Amino acid sequence: MKAKNKKPIYWTLLKFKDWKINIAASEKGLCYVGSQNKPFEELSVWAEKRFPGSPLVEDGKKLEPYAAELIEYFEGKRKNFSVPFDYHGTEFQVAVWNALCEIPFGETKTYSDIANYIHKPAAVRAVGAAIGANPVLITVPCHRVVGKNGSLTGYRGGLEMKTHLLDLERQGSQ
């Protein structure tokens, strides 16, 4: 049973070279960027939790501005995203996600760096959990967060995707 008054979430499968990623937006902005090569269920399960009852409507046209910026990023032509976001989380999660957006293209920070940045130095584990809940991969660059010793740590999109993104940025920042 679909609620009649629920606003739709528009989505499309972005395909570019080796990349296949489901992306979604509400009327307000980009709300979801999925993991590389993951099935539609990853998006539908997330949407049901975050926007219960909102219909998922496939609409490549509505997603064009978001897809265009992601493609420019993959091509090495874009270092920052200018599209509007519509992400929902706790106050703490949003603070962490906003901090991620401050990490410059081609650079990495540690979980401790992010905890210090948001003035919660003891909240390193909570920062990790908030990063793991980031709904808009790539555009809110959680892939730029690494372990204290520089090691690659968990990533919703998988470590292969994280490595890919960091390599892409290293090449683009030279």
Question: How would you characterize this protein structure?
Answer:
It is a single chain. The protein is an alpha/beta fold. It folds into 2 domains: 9-74; 91-172, Arc Repressor Mutant, subunit A (Orthogonal Bundle), CATH 1.10.10.10. Helices cover 38% and strands 15% of the residues. The protein contains 6 helices and 6 strands; from the N terminus they run βββαβααβααβα. The protein has helices spanning 40-50, 60-74, 91-100, 111-117, 124-132, 159-172; strands spanning 9-16, 19-25, 30-33, 56-58, 109-110, 145-146. The protein has a 4-stranded mixed β-sheet. Strands 5-6 form a two-stranded parallel ribbon. Helix 4 (111-117) crosses helix 5 (124-132). It is globular. The model has no long low-confidence stretch (mean pLDDT 92).
Observed structural traits:
174 residues, Arc Repressor Mutant, subunit A, two-stranded parallel ribbon, 6 helices, 38% helix, globular
Question: What is this structure's SSE topology?
Answer:
Elements: E1 9-16, E2 19-25, E3 30-33, H1 40-50, E4 56-58, H2 60-74, H3 91-100, E5 109-110, H4 111-117, H5 124-132, E6 145-146, H6 159-172
The best one-word shape is globular
Q: Order of strands across the biggest sheet?
A: 3-2-1-4
Secondary structure tally: strands: 6
- Strand fraction equals 5-15%
CATH architecture of the largest domain: Orthogonal Bundle
Mean pLDDT: 92
State the helix count: 6
CATH H-level superfamily of the largest domain: Winged helix-like DNA-binding domain superfamily/Winged helix DNA-binding domain
Helical amount among residues, as a percent range? 25-40%
CATH structural class of the largest domain: Mainly Alpha
Our measurement of the CA-to-CA distance between the termini, rounded to an integer number of angstroms, reads 52 Å
Radius of gyration: 16 Å
Our count of domains comes out at 2
Low-confidence stretches: none
| Order of secondary-structure elements | EEEHEHHEHHEH
The main pleated sheet reads as: 4 strands, mixed
> Which structural class is indicated by helix and strand composition?
alpha/beta
The CATH topology label of the largest domain is Arc Repressor Mutant, subunit A
